Amino acid sequence: MRVRRATVDDAGAVAAVHVRSWQVGYRGQLPDDLLDSLEAGQRVPRWTATLEATSWPARGVLVAEDPSGQPAGFASLSPSRDGDQDSATTGEITSFYVAPRTWRHGVGRRLMRSALGELGAHYRRASLWVLSTNAPAIGFYEATGWRADGAVKDDVLAGVPIRDLRYVRDLAREDAGPPAHIDPRAR
């Protein structure tokens, strides 16, 4: 498996992983009709725009590929969007999804190490938001060094009240510079 910086050409694959991860991972947490109605094509414009706005080292998307070269996950990185965080020193993982077919095969851990390396090249702290009912994701984040800081966001999605929890972690300054675990051929 390799992790590389995504390009605009990856928009469709990122959208497909995003939708499939939602459909499997949020089943029982969000309405089935919402999950069943999701289509990758609906998310391609969003991911195309995100990938066009890439500006390393502060903003971009990483793609994890399985041994056959198929996208197996992605992490979208940006300056913090939270008003109580300093966006000059705090980066955010705005999306982190791994294809369900690769869950529990080390893809998430490898992708997280790469994301933290990229963030550490530019920021001192990192944050992310996770659905409060998503116990598997919370367990993964806590196992990879994240901790809840008490911040919450309440919203309504498809008529269902949801709550997101913010997780944070400090980034080691030795991560500064291009992360060694990103495939240099993919730059």
From TrEMBL:
- Asked if the keyword Transferase belongs to this entry, the reply reads yes
Q: Which InterPro entries does the record match to this protein?
A: Acyl_CoA_acyltransferase, Bact_Acetyltransf, GNAT_dom
For this protein, the record's PROSITE patterns field holds: GNAT
- Record's protein name: GNAT family N-acetyltransferase
Swiss-Prot/TrEMBL keywords: Acyltransferase, Transferase
Q: Give the N-acetyltransferase domain ranges.
A: 1-172
Q: Does the keyword Cytoplasm apply?
A: no
